[in-house]
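Hey, quick one: can you model this chain's 3D structure?
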Amino acid sequence: MRKPYTKTEMIRLWHAYLEMLDLQDRKEKYSKTAYRNVHLQMHEGRTRGSYEAFMMNISTARDKAGLPLLKGYKPSMPNYNKYLDKLCVMTDSERAKAFVDDMKEQQKAA
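Sure thing. Here's the predicted structure for all 110 residues.
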């Protein structure tokens, strides 16, 4: 059974996507594999395929919102997590608050 992504994890991946997008825009070299490996080390039970699909989910939401996309993660996932639509319109401070709130919820549940 698949483990759903937490808001915390989604926000971390969103920011990783933005970091890579910034590097892409500045035409600096970076490694998508390195970003993926860091995420997989932090989140036990996630697979390479799960990570790659989620990054395509981010592209799908960003494409729908008319935002720039990261090369290599085509927007092609019709059944993506709709929370990503919210991330498209949130400010950095709203995302930070959502991250902290979700971390608190996870600690309460543990």
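One thing worth noting: The chain has five helices and no strands.
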